[in-house]
Request: fold
Amino acid sequence: MKTAVFEKVSERQFDEDLKKLLAKEGCFYENVVVPKRATSGSAGYDFHSPVSIDLKPGESARIPTGIRCHLNEEYLLQIYPRSSMGFKYQMCLMNTVGIIDSDYYYADNEGHIIVGIVNRGDKDLHIEAGDRFVQGVITRYYTTDDDNCKEVRHGGFGSTDCAHSSKG
Reply:
């Protein structure tokens, strides 16, 4: 049984996010590559950067991948740095691990997967357009027997914490 399908977001959504996050405009949509596994034994689907990025030590960037993922219910997509990026450059994700929920596909931003990276190393990090920089692993998750959540996602990042947050 297949659990997910990767797709490109619309060119309009990609261009809008690219301009907002990286202040870049141009013909980058053609660089969007649908993630694939490198070998039959690979757990992760490699994501390619559609744009070139240069980060000095301590700098960060949010990269719009141009990708969304249609996941079956009870599955999630976890985003991790590729091992080589972590070992060579100490590249980390801003949120440690990216969690893409199955209902994110229906978010207002078309479920556009945007990856925040940080250069924690001591040398400049260069990611060329087309380079594989993160990987996504599809995993099944479970809920508790007494779970009765009926909330529906409407927004994108951080939209699910509004209904249940208790600030004290």
About this structure: The mean pLDDT is 90. DSSP finds two helices and eleven strands in the chain. Residues 107 and 155 are 5 Å apart (CA to CA).
